[in-house]
């Protein structure tokens, strides 16, 4: 499993993206549990999944970036 992050701007909302790659050796149930754990504890949501010809899963997760606004 590998991971890469980066922010991106979309329609006035700022998102943080995390690209995760799972090799074909991980069963679907294990991948699901790992992604659910990231969603519950990190605030991530599923953006897209691509399964390549060799069985590798490339998953893109996203979460909204909340910027604190200075007052006063």
Provide structural commentary.
There is one protein chain. The chain is α+β, with helices and mostly antiparallel strands. It is built from one helix and four strands; from the N terminus they run ββαββ. It has one helix spanning 28-42, and strands spanning 2-10, 13-22, 45-51, 57-64. A four-stranded antiparallel beta sheet has the order 1-2-4-3, with helices on one face. A hairpin with a 5-residue loop joins β3 (45-51) and β4 (57-64).
Helix/strand layout:
Elements: E1 2-10, E2 13-22, H1 28-42, E3 45-51, E4 57-64
Antiparallel strand pairs: 1-2, 2-4, 3-4
The overall pLDDT, averaged over residues, is 88
The geometry reads as: elongated
Largest sheet: 4 strands, antiparallel
Strand content: over 45%
Number of strands: 4
Total helical segments: 1
Low-confidence stretches are none
CA distance, first residue to last residue: 45 Å
Largest sheet, order of strands side by side? 1-2-4-3
Structural class by SSE content = alpha+beta
Radius of gyration: 15 Å
